[in-house]
Every structure is written in structure tokens, then in C-alpha cells.
Write a structure and sequence with these properties.
binds ligand FHN; 19 strands; 28% helix; four-stranded antiparallel beta sheet; Immunoglobulin-like; alpha/beta; TIM Barrel; single chain
Length: 462
């Protein structure tokens, strides 16, 4: 089912998101940063999981569709705290299988998992001693799925991190965001909330689940510099190797830049960055949203992001039974198969030395603010690694008469398709001074193919 009205609301929430935390700055000055960030630069592709009580109503409250993001149902319906808490009595996701989820991440070519340990609804998805409002104490499930996931990740060599809503907590009288039950945020004792729930829960997460690769904070309402610094010190003191995303506080910069939701910049960035992205139009499961991104769309986005120097954190929203919807599993597995052949162009690869391939600003068309709009190009993207350029060509763009390599000074030693296990050298001809690689007549993969161009030097000289 296509969800045009939902998309409208979703877009509205996207418009709000950048106000809060788009284009943050990354803290790169401290000495531990280079050590912490190394795995992230290699990984490029991660699985985001939004899972919580909201997967039960799944976008519908008292028989009525509630528009917006699935995980925002409590806020958007709105559902009073006294009613929302009753969902915990029914939450029994017996089909949750950490092994299966981690195996899916592995087979999809994802290298890290970040899961909601507590979203804005305030419900902890792990066994917390700080608040009984958690999946172990408040539900019939009586298991700690995050511990199970942490163990499965360790077994499969996948990095594991936590999303934690540090500021919004609609369950708590002093948490941000729930004005319907608790009145205006300005009148709350927000520091009390931070010191009594948010900070101790973050400490628990960093203490009981082994190495945490990333603490993913979000929507930093009322997170002043002083408050942000407290969280920063906490994370650094308990797990110095744990990365902090870009949404802790406006003033306190994490280890990398977090863009707005689903916002891929038009050009490369100099800092490390990551885009959190959806596979449909919601993060938490909605039963009416089956608007899944196709494998081709996902591959394009992943390569686009990598070619601009970023990471792609792609979300799945398990159902209330604990299962990731079948359709998106299939799509992700197709992406994984593509990555098995073409992964050299992604993992550890760095951004494009070119840039014109991203597109250009229109000379004539302006947006509502009078700024020229960006016209993206989608024919190909380039990533690099030592002595190699990887050109990924998408969909219909398969130049049977030869791929024209953009101009640079370095000598090319050979070219081949990454998906060809023999790396059979392709003929390179020079036409009107332009080096042209002769591609195989029939396109090996109409979704995307990667051409590897090897250089006589480690780095390309433009
Ligand atoms: O409000 C949240 C939303 O529910 C979701 O968690 C996303 C993921 O990036 N972050 C916030 C909106 O930007």
C-alpha cells in the first residue's frame, strides 16, 4: 500500500528534524577520536533497529489510523501515560531471535547494529535497575533482548551500539516532550530527570553489555552545553572507545556529524558523518506502511553516501512479535549479495576525488526561499582505496560503447569489473583524449555494477 498522507507527515517531521540536529560539528580534537572512529570509517553500512511498545499499536489506536511515525503514536494520538503503559502487559515478542537478526545484518553486509534501548516513550527495552518500566520487569516476556543481541553480535563480529533518547521521555513527569500529561517543559525539573533516569540508564548500558561501539543520542531538547558535557564525560569515563553520534547536544559535539533523517548531503563532507535512514516511511513498525525501498534504491543510497565520505545507518522496525518484516529482509539480502561481489567499493573506501558526478545547482530553478535547487545526477558514483578507483554505474546507465573515465593525471594500469572473479582486464581506449573502458556487452547486473580502475600510484593526481 502506498501511503501518500503518511509521507506528508513524515516529510513534516523531517523538516523539523534538521532544526534540531542537522549538520552538527564533530569533535575531532581529542586524542582518542582517531582510535574510536577507525572501525566506523571501515564499516560504512549499519543496521538501525527501532523497536518498542509502539510496535503493538503499529500505527493504529482504538481502531483509528494515527498518522506520523510509528514510534510517535503515544505523542501523536495522543495516548495518555495511564493508557500507554498498559501495552507492556501484552508485550510478549516470543518470536524475537537475536541470532536471526544478527545473521540478517551479516548477510546484508551491515557491520554494526544500533538498537533503541529507550525511545521517547520512556520504555526501556532492556533489564534496567533504574526504572521498572522495562521489558524484563513490566512485560510477560521476562527476557533482555538487548543482552541477547549484544551476545549474538559479539559472536558474529558485528559492532553493537545503543540508541538512547536522553532528553525526551514521555513517561516521566520531568522528562522532555510530554506536555499533554505533564505540562510545559520549561516548568519541569529536567536535571532531576537527567540525574535520576537518563544518566544512570546510560551508565547501565555502558556497564552491562560488553563493548558498546556507539551511543546514539537523539532530539537534544533542553540539552545545554553543561548537560551535554555531563553525558560526554560519562560515556568517555566508562567506555572511552565508544563513539558518540552528533545529536547529544547542539554545543557538545560527538565524534561525527549526524545529518537529518534521510538527508544525504549534495556534496562530500570533510568530517566523518552518518545518515540515519528509513526503509519505508517510519522507524517503528506500522502495519500500514509497506512502501519498502527496493534493493536498487538501497544500493544507490549506500554508494552515494560512501562516495561522499559518509556512513549509511539503515533502519528496520520489528513487529510486536519481534520479527523484521519479510519483504524488507528479502530486499536487504539482495543488497548483501551485491555487496559480496562489490564490497571493496564500500568497506574502508573513501570519498570521490571528483564531485561533478553528484549534480549541480540549477542556473534557473529556485526553491521557495529563492535559492537555486540542486539537480542530482545518478549515473555513477566513485569511491577510492589505495591505488584504486571504484566507479559504480547505476541502472540504465550502462555505456555499452565505453565508460569515459573522468580526467586525472595518474596512469591507469588496468580496469576490470569487481563482480568478475577472474578480474579479466577490460580494454582501455583513448577517444579524443579521454580514457574509455570497454565494458562487457551485456550488463552483468542492471541494478548496479562496479568498475575497478587500478592506478600506478597509491593516490589519484587530479
Ligand atoms: O524523533 C526521532 C524519531 O522517532 C527517530 O528515532 C529518528 C531517527 O533518526 N530520530 C528522531 C527524529 O529525528
Amino acid at each position: 500500500m502506498r501511503l501518500t498522507p503518511l509521507i506528508g507527515l513524515f516529510c513534516a517531521s523531517l523538516l523539523l528534524a534538521p532544526l534540531v540536529h542537522a549538520e552538527t560539528k564533530a569533535e575531532t580534537s581529542d586524542q582518542g577520536h582517531e582510535k574510536r572512529i577507525a572501525w566506523f570509517r571501515e564499516a560504512k553500512f549499519g543496521m538501525f533497529i527501532h523497536w518498542g511498545l509502539y510496535s503493538i499499536p503499529a500505527g493504529e489506536w482504538q481502531g483509528k489510523q494515527v498518522l506520523g511515525l510509528g514510534e510517535w503514536i503515544m505523542h501523536n494520538a495522543p495516548v495518555p501515560v495511564k493508557d500507554y503503559v498498559k501495552l507492556a502487559d501484552q508485550f510478549n515478542p516470543t518470536q524475537f531471535d537475536a541470532e536471526k537478526i544478527v545473521q540478517l545484518a551479516v548477510d546484508s553486509g551491515m557491520k554494526y547494529i544500533v538498537i533503541t534501548s529507550k525511545h521517547h516513550d520512556g520504555f526501556a527495552m532492556y533489564h534496567s535497575s533504574v526504572s521498572k518500566y522495562n521489558i524484563y520487569d513490566a512485560t510477560p516476556f521476562k527476557r533482555d533482548p538487548l543482552k541477547e543481541l549484544a551476545d549474538a553480535c559479539a559472536k558474529h563480529g558485528i559492532k553493537f551500539g545503543f540508541y538512547y533518547s536522553q532528553s525526551q521521555d514521555w513517561h516521566e513527569p520531568n522528562g522532555a516532550g510530554n506536555t499533554a500529561d505533564f505540562g510545559p517543559d520549561e516548568k519541569k525539573d529536567f536535571d532531576r530527570y537527567l540525574t535520576e533516569k537518563s544518566e544512570p540508564q546510560v551508565k547501565e548500558l555502558l556497564t552491562h553489555y560488553g563493548p558498546v561501539c556507539l551511543m546514539w543520542f537523539d532530539t537534544p531538547f533542553m540539552m545545554t552545553e553543561e548537560r551535554g558535557s555531563r553525558f560526554m564525560r560519562l560515556v568517555r569515563s566508562v567506555q572511552p572507545n565508544c563513539l558518540i553520534d552528533g545529536r547529544l547536544s547542539k554545543e557538545v559535539h560527538g565524534d561525527y556529524v549526524s545529518t537529518g533523517d534521510n538527508v544525504v548531503p549534495n556534496k562530500s563532507m570533510t568530517e566523518d558523518w552518518e545518515v540515519p535512514a528509513t526503509t519505508n516511511n517510519t522507524w517503528g513498525f506500522r502495519k500500514d506502511d509497506t512502501d519498502w525501498k527496493s534493493p536498487g534504491e538501497i544500493v544507490f543510497k549506500l554508494v552515494d553516501v560512501a562516495s561522499k565520505g559518509g556512513n549509511y545507518l539503515l533502519n528496520v522496525g520489528p513487529t510486536s512479535a519481534g520479527v523484521i518484516p519479510e519483504h524488507i529482509q528479502e530486499n536487504l539480502l539482495t543488497v548483501g549479495k551485491w555487496l559480496k561481489l562489490n564490497g571493496d567499493a564500500i568497506y574502508g573506501a573513501t570519498k570521490s576525488p571528483f564531485g561533478d558526478e553528484f549534480g549541480e545547482y540549477s542556473a534557473s530553478i529556485k526553491d521557495h526561499a529563492g535559492k537555486p535547487i540542486f539537480l542530482p545526477r545518478t549515473d555513477w558514483r566513485c569511491t577510492t582505496s589505495k591505488g584504486k578507483l571504484f566507479f559504480t554505474l547505476f541502472r540504465k546507465y550502462y555505456p555499452r560503447d565505453g565508460f569515459e573515465i573522468p580526467a586525472f593525471k595518474t596512469k591507469v594500469t588496468q580496469a576490470y569489473m569487481l563482480s568478475d572473479p577472474e578480474h579479466t582486464p577490460l580494454k582501455i581506449v583513448v577517444r579524443d583524449g579521454v580514457r574509455c573502458v570497454q565494458l562487457p556487452r551485456s550488463n552483468p547486473d542492471p541494478m548496479a555494477v562496479t568498475l575497478c580502475v587500478e592506478l600506478a600510484d597509491d593516490k589519484v593526481q587530479l
